[in-house]
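Budget justification note: compute hours in this period were largely spent on complex prediction jobs such as the one shown. Inputs:
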Amino acid sequence: MILDSQLPTIFAVLMAFSVLLYAMLDGYDLGVGLLLPMENEGQRDKMIASIGPFWDANETWLVLAVGLLLVAFPSAHNVILRELYLPTAFLLIGLILRGVSFDFRAKVIAEHKARWDRLFKLGSLVATASQGYMLGLFVMGFEHSFTAVLFGLLSAIGVTMAYALIGACWLIMKAEGELQLRAIKWARITGVVSFVGILAVCITNPIINVFVLERWTNPPLAYIFATVPALCFAFFVIGHATLKRLPLKDDAGCWLPFVLCVCIFTTSFIGLALSFYPWVVPQQLTIFEAASAPESLRIMLYGALVVIPIIFAYTLFAYRVFWGKVGDLRYY
Amino acid sequence: MADVMLLSRIQFAANISFHILFPTITIALCWFLVYFKVRFHISKHPVWMRVYRFWVKVFALTFALGVVSGITMSFQFGTNWPGFMEKVGNIAGPLLAYEVMTAFFLEATFLGIMLFGINRVPSWVHTGATLLVAFGTSMSAFWILSLNSWMHTPTGFEMRDGVAHAVDWFAIIFNPSFPYRLGHMLLASGLTVCFLIAGISAYRVLRGDNKKAPNIALRTAVYVAAIIAPLQILMGDMHGLNTFEHQPQKVAAMEGVWDTTKGAPLLLFAIPDEEQRTNHMEIAIPKLASIILTHDPEGEIPGLNEFEGKHPPVKPVFFGFRIMVGLGMLMLLSAWVASFLLWRKKTLSKGFLMFFVGMTFSGWVATLAGWYVTEIGRQPYLVNGVLTTAEAVTDIPSGNVAFSLALYLIVYAFLLVAYIKTLFLMARKSVEIEEYSLSELASKPQPMKEVTA
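Corresponding output:
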């Protein structure tokens, strides 16, 4: 049986899992939005068609993540969203604009289509930059200082680049011909910038947060922990080498950059999680202090254990239906 | 503090009013889509596919607006009403979590297959996806209305150290006002969609679109409205009786009853005056309010003065109720007359078609008016008898709330205009939207791998 005292950890893992899935899944469709080339309508159509069937479900992981924070750790939810009130408002406006542009562009008269595409791109940028800024402030422990704002801005650039990277890798997998070549170029540029960004966080985080430094330098655990950034950087190197050789004959390995990107996101995220566990608000609230009543967590857990595997099953089904290169995907 | 509270209330009202417009359409519209698709399967007549194709696009656009405005809602609890989750989070949390897990993922995932997958999966799988989306939207209504109803009639919990703890989940989910509120909302969604379909179809017919599709859609919508409009009035009456039992102060405001009265009249019109605690310019039908609420001409209705300081503001509740009921009666009348004419004469006159165009968004107005009655009617409480709105509000600087509110209002006004304009634009382009060749709908799936550009 599951003990009451284990519930906060279980929910922290569930929440971390949905944040990571959100970052990767909505990451690629936000990234595709960021990369929209305003001078080429044909490529824009293809790019948007490649994310059409998925974006809505991808965004649902954000609702689940925020929902879990809200329902499992209500006091942390209050602190975090109060500190991040304005960036949250911007994030939501960004998500609103891109979500509706996606649908309006297909239905308005042709002259207005480019306007909605521009709004789609702008909405994606506002959403990714706000998320990056929020992550930056979280790492800084919601400190109110110039350094915190500066770090938030840097983080906004880093996260935007990482999303553009995974978006480009998605396109390498789903596109062909000229668009694929373009995506490879995008991936190479954003890959380098993302690498620098992640390196910057790795250096800054332990300097700002003493408890993080202790955790990463305290043997014997530190040796095990050290494999995480090592792996992450190895994935970057392999990715860089792969991108140089693509595209290969018969489009072999077109999926490899995306898989590597998933690995990069996962290792970076594990790195952050290892730094901050068990804090849900750095140095203010632990998951144990912030957790809801056990009877409420328990009824949600039972539901989650039944429903989440079903969600996975039909999500896989949807990806299988739309497997392969994006064709003339049309709205029916 | 008062400023933040007022701004937060306006912001929440703006967000939820904007949001509810779209689910009100999608909940019922998806069941209409299932019906159109099934009719196509049975009859193989292309007109049903044309009807489906037009309305599935309206559905896609409406759904997108519902999703993005809904995400905003999920953040609002924490940003503006921290006291809500602190005090009743143990109850509200699991209900919201079940909505995400059993409804949001289901509808979002199968929506992709429903919108883009028609020639990638067998036809019956596509119809199944449509059915699952319809089921998902209704499940979402189930959970959120359960939570909302619990805020009106809280049961199944106990307070420990000032925080609500769940004791009986069945009593929480199926709290006393839930069945009525859910039924009332689902029927409201049905009526809203009937008048939306009727209005847009009438617009097309008026513009000289003499295809079969708009006529068949108009006919379906009018007949369904003729059936559910009276059901809705009956359901509304039952909901009112339930409110009378659990929240008499809300009913007193709805009826404009100040002093506890035996044999209270039904006020067709009046201007309630909260300062003098009386009504001006009353037009009344004697005893009718008592007959409706207590089934006794001399029945007693507790007045607002019994709840002084603990009853809602009277004017919005009083007028909101009259707008909702007035529109409901108009819907019933127009649906019955139109059904009779369509049955006997097969067509509607130009004037009647123009009337339906005017009624296109009448469901929105009635639904919003109804929600204002019940939600403002719950004030000053957020959770009836447990938590007041003032206790739950955030303490962030009011400037921040004012800024975010202004941002939301601009975006919402822009989107609402764009949505309505696009609907009518689609109606004008409808022939092009509906056209399809039968080869596009081959019921055998195309091989999944070799789809090329």
